[in-house]
C-alpha cells in the first residue's frame, strides 16, 4: 500500500495536466510543481522527560513545514504511537491544500510525537507537551508557523505549549497556538467548527442538487466531536439522520434519530451498542459495515481513514459521500463510486471548517478582541459557501470530480503565490 506522502504527491500529480493549461512557461511550471510536492523543512528531535518513577524516557518528535507562499504554516500536533515522518509530511501537504481551498492565508504544517498518551500520567504529558513547545519555539510564531490540536491533543495541551513557548520567548504571543481554552484566547465556536463547516457544505451542495432537507436521508459513520456536531447541525437544518455509529457499531431508525438525545444516552451508557441493547424497541443495532451499505442519500464518514475501500465500496448505495474524516475513501474506492455516478465531496473541502475557525482565533488574538459566536458562524458560512461554489464551478466547467476540482483550485492558488514571490 502506498505511503501517505506518496499518496499526497500522487493527488497533486493528478491535476498537473489540467493546471498546465494556465501556465505558458512549462519549465517554470514544472519547477513549481516539484517544489510543491515536497515540504520546505522538516524538523525532528528526541525529547527527553523524567517519568514519575524518576527515570528518563525519550520520544521522537517531528514538525513538517510544507509551503508558506500563501502565509504562515498552519497545522496540528498529534500524539500517537504510529506517528511517522512520512505521515507528518503528507499531513502538512494536505493542510496547504485545505487552507488554499477555503482561501485562508496559510500554508500547511503538521507535527507529531511517537507516543501512546494513554501510557503517560498527566504530569508526564505536561512535561512532554512543554518539551515539544521548547523544541519548536525557534521556528513557530504568529507570522511563522501556528500549531493547533490534532489526534490525542486538545486545549489542555495547547495551554501547556503556549506557557512553555511564552516563557522561552519572554512575552505574550497567544496567536502562536490555536485551539486554546477560551480563558487563554480560544475562540467561541471552535468546538463544533469542523462539523458546522461540513453542514454548510451539505446545504450548499443540496441547493445545487435541488435536495429537500426533510426528504434527504443521511448516515454518519463516527460519533466523536465531528460526527456528533455534523449530525446535530444537519438534524437542526431538517435533514433526516437515520444512522450514526461509533467504534462499537451503529444505531439505525428509518424515521430519523434524535441526535441530542443519543448524545446524552452515550454519555450515560458509554457506547451506541449499549444504547441499542437497552432500548431495543426504539433503536436497531447495526455493524459499521452495514452502515456503509445503507440505502441513504448521503453517507458521511467522520471516523477513520480508508473507511470506504475496495472491500466494501460495491455495497455503497449512497449517491453522495461527504468526507468529514481525513482520507476516508481510498483512491481505488473513489474510482468505483465515480463510475457509479456518485459524488464524493472531498475532505480538503468538507472538514476545512476546523482550520477556518482556527484562523478566526488567530485573527482575534492579533486584534486582542473576541468575536461573538454569531459572527464566527456567519463568517464560517461565508467562507465555506464560497469555497463550495468555486469547487463546484471548476468541477462543472472541467467535467472533473469534486476532489480534482478542489486540488485544481488549491494548487493553482499556491502556484500563483509562489510565482508572484519569484520562488522559481
Largest sheet: 7 strands, mixed
Q: For this structure, what is the CATH homologous superfamily of the domain at 193-350?
A: NAD(P)-binding Rossmann-like Domain
Number of strands: 12
CATH architecture of the domain at 193-350: 3-Layer(aba) Sandwich
Low-pLDDT residue spans: none
Give the topology string: H per helix, E per strand: HHHEEEHEHEHHEHEEHHEHEEHEHHHH
Which percent bin holds the helix content?
Answer: 40-55%
List the helices and strands and how they pair.
Elements: H1 4-13, H2 16-20, H3 26-36, E1 41-50, E2 56-65, E3 73-80, H4 85-102, E4 107-114, H5 122-136, E5 145-149, H6 155-169, H7 193-209, E6 217-221, H8 225-236, E7 240-246, E8 249-252, H9 259-269, H10 272-278, E9 284-286, H11 288-292, E10 298-301, E11 320-322, H12 331-339, E12 343-345, H13 347-350, H14 353-367, H15 373-398, H16 402-421
Parallel strand pairs: 3-4, 3-5, 6-7, 6-10, 10-11, 11-12
Antiparallel strand pairs: 1-2, 2-4, 7-8, 8-9
Helix pairs in contact: 1-4, 3-16, 4-16, 5-6, 7-8, 7-14, 7-15, 14-15, 15-16
Amino acid at each position: 500500500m502506498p505511503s501517505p506522502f506518496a499518496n499526497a504527491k500522487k493527488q497533486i500529480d493528478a491535476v498537473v495536466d489540467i493546471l498546465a493549461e494556465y501556465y505558458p512557461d512549462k519549465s517554470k511550471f514544472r519547477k513549481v510543481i516539484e517544489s510543491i510536492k515536497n515540504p520546505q523543512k522538516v524538523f525532528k528531535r528526541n525529547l527527553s522527560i523524567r517519568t514519575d518513577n524518576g527515570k528518563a524516557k525519550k520520544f521522537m518528535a517531528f514538525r513538517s513545514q510544507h509551503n508558506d507562499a500563501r502565509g504562515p504554516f498552519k497545522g496540528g500536533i498529534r500524539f500517537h504511537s504510529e506517528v511517522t515522518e512520512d505521515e507528518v509530511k503528507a499531513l502538512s501537504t494536505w493542510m496547504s491544500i485545505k487552507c488554499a481551498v477555503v482561501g485562508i492565508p496559510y500554508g500547511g504544517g503538521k507535527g507529531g510525537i511517537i507516543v501512546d498518551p494513554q501510557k503517560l500520567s498527566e504530569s508526564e504529558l505536561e512535561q512532554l507537551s512543554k518539551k515539544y513547545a521548547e523544541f519548536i519555539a525557534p521556528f513557530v510564531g504568529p507570522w511563522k508557523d501556528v500549531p493547533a490540536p490534532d489526534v490525542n491533543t486538545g486545549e489542555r495541551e495547547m495551554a501547556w505549549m503556549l506557557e512553555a513557548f511564552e516563557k522561552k520567548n519572554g512575552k505574550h504571543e497567544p496567536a502562536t497556538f490555536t485551539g486554546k481554552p477560551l480563558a487563554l484566547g480560544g475562540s467561541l465556536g471552535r468546538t463544533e467548527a469542523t462539523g458546522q463547516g461540513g453542514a454548510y457544505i451539505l446545504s450548499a451542495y443540496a441547493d445545487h442538487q435541488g435536495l429537500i432537507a426533510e426528504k434527504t436521508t443521511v448516515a454518519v459513520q463516527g460519533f466523536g466531536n465531528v460526527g456528533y456536531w455534523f449530525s446535530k447541525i444537519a438534524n437542526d437544518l431538517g435533514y433526516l439522520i437515520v444512522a450514526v455509529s461509533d467504534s462499537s457499531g451503529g444505531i439505525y431508525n428509518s424515521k430519523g434519530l434524535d441526535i441530542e438525545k443519543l448524545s446524552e444516552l452515550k454519555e450515560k451508557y458509554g457506547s451506541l451498542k449499549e444504547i441499542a441493547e437497552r432500548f431495543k424497541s426504539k433503536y436497531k443495532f447495526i455493524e459499521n459495515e452495514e452502515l456503509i451499505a445503507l440505502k441513504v442519500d448521503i453517507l458521511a464518514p467522520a471516523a477513520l481513514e480508508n473507511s470506504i475501500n475496495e472491500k466494501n465500496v460495491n455495497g455503497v448505495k449512497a449517491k453522495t459521500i461527504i468526507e468529514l474524516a481525513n482520507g476516508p475513501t481510498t483512491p481505488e474506492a473513489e474510482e468505483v463510486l465515480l463510475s457509479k455516478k456518485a459524488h464524493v465531496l472531498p475532505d480538503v473541502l468538507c472538514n476545512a471548517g476546523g482550520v477556518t475557525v482556527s484562523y478566526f482565533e488567530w485573527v482575534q488574538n492579533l486584534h486582542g478582541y473576541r468575536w461573538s459566536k454569531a459572527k464566527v458562524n456567519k463568517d464560517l458560512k461565508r467562507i465555506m459557501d464560497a469555497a463550495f461554489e468555486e469547487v463546484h464551478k471548476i468541477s462543472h466547467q472541467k467535467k472533473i470530480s469534486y476532489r480534482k476540482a478542489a486540488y485544481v483550485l488549491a494548487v493553482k492558488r499556491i502556484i500563483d503565490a509562489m510565482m508572484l514571490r519569484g520562488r522559481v
